[in-house]
Amino acid sequence: MSAAMDTESTYSGYSHYSGHSKKAHRQGRDRHKSPRSKDGSRSEKSVTIQTPPAEPLLGNDASRAEEGQDDNWGETTTAITGTSEHSISQEDIARISKDLEDSVGLDCKRYLGLTVAAVLGLLVFLTPIAFILLPQILWRDDLEPCGTVCEGLFISVAFKLLILLIGTWALFFRQPKADIPRVFVFRALLLVLIFLFVFSYWLFYGVRILDSKDTNYQGIVQYAVSLVDALLFIHYLAIVLLELRQLQPMFTVKVVRSTDGESRYYSLGHLSIQRAALVVLENYYKDFTVYNPALLTASKSRAAKHMAGLKVYNVDGPGNNASGQSRAMIAAAARRRDSSHNELYYEEADHERRVKKRRARLVVAVEEAFTHIKRLQAEEQQKAPGEMMDPREAAQAIFPSMARALQKYLRTTRQQQYHSMESILQHLSFCITNNMTPKAFLERYLNPGPTLQYDRDRWFSKQWTLVSEESVTSGLQDGIVFVLKCLDFSLVVNVKKIPFIKLSEEFIDPKSHKFVLRLQSETSV
Prior knowledge:
Largest sheet: 5 strands, antiparallel
């Protein structure tokens, strides 16, 4: 009998979907027949009809209306209408193509800079070796014997070059974290300084040693050693300029997300604007909660509904002056709209009640699901009469019991676009493998996490544009404001200098801590 009822409900659901499909088809045909509007604007509304078998476990419809949902919502629904959040116009396509061209240019610039740095580094390391080997190759018979002194200098040059090689690899040859719009000024200055330094050494070597064929081989080796020592000092200067200079905090930046107003404060040192922007973005991905555009649709629809309620009519005709009556109507409409805060209050209260109810159901469902699995010890695995499962199979076995409650909770909190069924199963198997509690499993879904917690394809911010009135290579200053823009929102960064703090000292003698007990003449008994 239950099977028959299931078959009947399925058939009724499919017939319901068929009716909606025919209706949608007729509406689409009529819409294609109707002429376009004069301004040529395209409608952003889209109608999506989903059958029950094709509906994913966790839908990605961010704009589903939650106002009229009861506790059994979603069990028999087959037709869903909504408004799309994103639309692509010709201007967007042109902007995307421009961004692709810019990215190709950035890649070429990055590889060009890396090639120049690699060639210059190879020249720096081969120069001392060339200084020592060229006299041995060109006029070996005319050189004066050097003996033990030159051998000790050879060992010194070898170890100094090894230290310089390791330090250069650790400081310069690191995988870049981002593409910046302009060159790094201090790094470019260091490259120019190294080039001029090596060029001057080669010029002196060619004029004083190669042309005259100097026979003092010990002096030639000491000349190469002095070059290696100078290169080590330049490497120390690079560490100071590139790493140590920015460690002391000098500025405080306030980062505000433009859509929801979420803000954070960070302390920065002496950095350029483009490097400060990189630091801000690195902290954004780990500190800010993930951007959820679905949370903004409710407020936008409520504001549009209130604005639609304001209507002004000129009852005396276009030629008569009815400004006083119009002002009165506007005032009446404004007084009528003053009660909108009550509507907002009850909407938020009802939403909080629904979230708490579905949260409680989710917690109970997950706790009950976790009670059905048990970790087997090493000695119990030999005696287990039943079928043993790995963590993935165990997760697939207990997931259906909590899937419905989790689906309803994610839809109510508008998080369903960030959690696919595969990602939930992976997280569940991870929790089972590491013997984690149900509370640890639910932490990811009950509290929205930072952007790094979610898959990269679900980020709304991958490519950024730095907007600044000052040059991006200039250093931070008090009062500078720059903006980091992406496709859907922007980060507004306000820079404030840390004030100079004057701290004084006051000495208190420990013997001065003396007290006297004062008693009144009349005391309570």
